Amino acid sequence: MIVLAAAVALIGSLFFALGAALQQFEAFGTAKPGLLALLRRPRWLFGGLSILVGGGLHIVALGLGPLTVVQPMGVASLLFALPIAATLHGRKPARRELAAAGVVAAGLIGLVLLVPESAGTTHLAPQGVLTLLGVAGIAAVLLWAGSRAASPTGRAALLATSSGVLYGATATLVRALVDGGWNWWYLLALPVPAVLALMMLQRAYAVGHFGVSFASLQIADPLTAVAFGALLLGEPLPTGVLPIAAAALTAAGTFALARSSPLEARL
């Protein structure tokens, strides 16, 4: 079931990559990328539809396998998104960018392969939901505040990381709902981090530096979900030296992406 869950999540990541590239293309350079304004743009809406399809497949995958396996598989969307975004901007991604994205993907996939299989039914108590939303909310606000004084590259990274934290919290809540923990209060709470994550992400896309922002999102999202999955859902974490090496590889790839020229500026 773990292999099937990973395969479904991988297909979902392709749809997510297409949607992200389309939405970034529409949000880039917008002074105030408000959701109401973006909702009037057909290409942005089509991107949203693609993301919904990817999200639906992701939910199916969450029902087939543990959060610590499914969530990091979304990193493959980084490899899909860069060429798609480059095509939309009428350019080609540099080999350095593709190589850096490959390093990020290799690091996160390495973490996936090192995660032990989870056993038992997932359960999230009401106080766990409050902890989840509270911790994710505080972290997101701190990252947003830091972005206001950062360089354009740093601003894109911090805003996208803030979005990733909120999406990771959303995925954790979805996992609890899918795995037998149905609760109407949980369902009502679900849109809160999801909508805030979407707003933060559009602000990151408006800055530019798509490679950096999307990589930051893809790293923060699974790492947050894995952390919450271990702390609140009791899912196992990998141990030993190899996970540390995989994490270092991921960090190195992200740093390389941050040093590259943005796709939007390459004329």
TrEMBL record:
Transmembrane segments: 43-64, 98-116, 128-145, 157-178, 184-201, 213-234, 240-258
Top-rank taxon: Bacteria
Signal peptide (UniProt feature, chain positions): none
Species of provenance: Nonomuraea glycinis
Entry protein name: DMT family transporter
Keywords on record: Membrane, Transmembrane, Transmembrane helix
Phylogenetic classification of the source organism: Bacteria, Bacillati, Actinomycetota, Actinomycetes, Streptosporangiales
